[in-house]
Design brief:
By secondary structure, the protein is of the alpha+beta class. The protein contains three helices and eight strands.
């Protein structure tokens, strides 16, 4: 324990930062939240998901903010209809609510292959198609983005709304 603590302190002193989760958070807009019992029911459903480490529901804003495990996979490349996006939608619906938009904050690199731009999520092999129509972020450099996820039978598409920073 003492050795681990010494290593962490040394890393911080040398300016190294602890690694951040690739997908830092997910916010799901939810219709039907009206009372504290609604909040409890929604939290209960979302906390059952294995990739969710924390949930904060705001009844006034009508959304739930999920803190995700570093191992969270937004989509399953073998089955685009599964993965965390589908699981969150199912959990919200099973709680008796209607899921609307899913918004994420993520870090990674944008890569363009042919006419498709993808976010390669930091620390993973996960690739998410990106709609960069409204924004032209830099390619092949580490960055953090905020965007809305749209999903269909072909998988998820991330519409980048804001470039948070590049490093």
């Amino acid at each position: 324990m003492r050795t681990y603590l010494t290593m962490v302190m040394l890393a911080l002193a040398l300016g190294a930062e602890p690694s951040a989760a690739a997908v830092e958070s997910m916010t799901v807009q939810v219709d039907g939240l009206v009372c504290p019992f609604c909040v409890y029911g929604l939290e209960k459903q979302l906390k059952k998901l294995p990739s969710v480490e924390g949930v904060r529901v705001d009844v006034d804003a009508g959304h739930a903010v999920l803190q995700l495990a570093e191992t969270a996979r937004l989509v399953d490349p073998e089955d685009p209809g599964s993965g965390l996006i589908a699981a969150v939608r199912e959990a919200v619906e099973s709680g008796g609510f209607t899921p609307r938009s899913l918004r994420i904050t993520a870090s990674g690199r944008l890569e363009t292959r042919g006419d498709i731009t993808e976010l390669v999520v930091s620390g993973t092999t996960e690739r998410i198609a990106v709609d960069t129509e409204n924004l032209d972020p830099p390619r092949d450099v580490p960055l953090r983005v905020d965007g809305v996820l749209h999903d269909d039978d072909k998988g998820a598409v991330l519409e980048i709304r804001q470039l948070l920073d590049t490093t």
